[in-house]
Amino acid sequence: MRSMRVHELSEDISVLRMDEVTLPPPGPGEVRLRLKACSVNFPDILMVQGKYQFKPELPFAPGMEGAGIVAEVGPGVTSLKVGDEVVAGLRIGGFAEEAIASAEACRPIPRGMDFVHAAAYPAAYLTAYVALVIRGNLRAGETLLVHGSTGGVGMAAVDIGKLWGATVIATSASDEKLKVVKARGADHVLNVTTGFREEVKALTGGRGADVVYDPVGGDVFDESVRCIAWNGRLLVIGFTSGRIPNISVNMPLIKGFSVIGVRAGEYGRRDPEAGRRNIEAVDRLAAEGKIVPYVCATFPLDRAVDAMRLLQERKAVGKVVITMD
């Protein structure tokens, strides 16, 4: 089968190349999947560059989450059978026609959802759910400030925020992209090119945002500290700006807010039972049609680098998906 793999770490993501690979048979508790789609996530780029906290052995295929059909089951697997259509958490290996996955990391595709959208929802919406509901304790009536709102994890946060009854202020550096977020339900949209703290204060009657969802970091984090409400929660999701910010601890002391780190996948690995509950909650929302990822583009497997560049160059809106057919 074909697989787009990394043989050397590089800032230049074009080092990916197409290989012919023969997978080993699935081991105990594993299945072999015939992949139909795999979403592209920012950590895929960081892994190619050697900058992500998880550093797989070379060579490897990026691809954290995919959707496909069970082609073979390993010893001891009773929860799945050949022919089942599933969505799978992979960590790596999704940029390929086939992948080996843990049976526990596979679950049925939500009814009514195609392979492309099934591959696009799990990581983004799990991140948003764990961040806002579990770690951020978002409550109805609160104001939620979502940075990077035009990306996959940002759009997911807008959706979860609205479902939980928050007033959502969505930010981005692109007016055109913000039109999409506004159409999907954000109450207010702000272009952060010239700053945002005064606008946030004005929209909240001077209080500031109760919860800040920040996958961007850098200057966006710094300014968020200036417009967060008393007893607010500043959720650290990532650093797509490229700069990991610092904070003087007198700021959360004086303003009474919390800075909370969010790693949804690690949360589940450290507390598997809580992780299962979180995944079940997100899957339930998907099955009920309450969350539907916005997919702006699809690319065939041999154009995986082009798909990644769309994210790297900040041209994507929502999710980008690689398809195998």
UniProtKB/TrEMBL annotation:
Residues 11-322 form the Enoyl reductase (ER) domain. SUPFAM superfamilies: GroES-like (SSF50129), NAD(P)-binding Rossmann-fold domains (SSF51735). Pfam families: ADH_N (PF08240), ADH_zinc_N (PF00107). InterPro entries: ADH-like_C (IPR013149), ADH-like_N (IPR013154), ER (IPR020843), GroES-like_sf (IPR011032), NAD(P)-bd_dom_sf (IPR036291), Zn-ADH-like_protein (IPR051397). GO terms for molecular function: oxidoreductase activity. PANTHER family: QUINONE OXIDOREDUCTASE-LIKE PROTEIN 2 (PTHR43677:SF4), SHORT-CHAIN DEHYDROGENASE/REDUCTASE (PTHR43677). This is Zinc-binding dehydrogenase. The lineage of its organism: Bacteria, Pseudomonadati, Pseudomonadota, Alphaproteobacteria, Hyphomicrobiales.
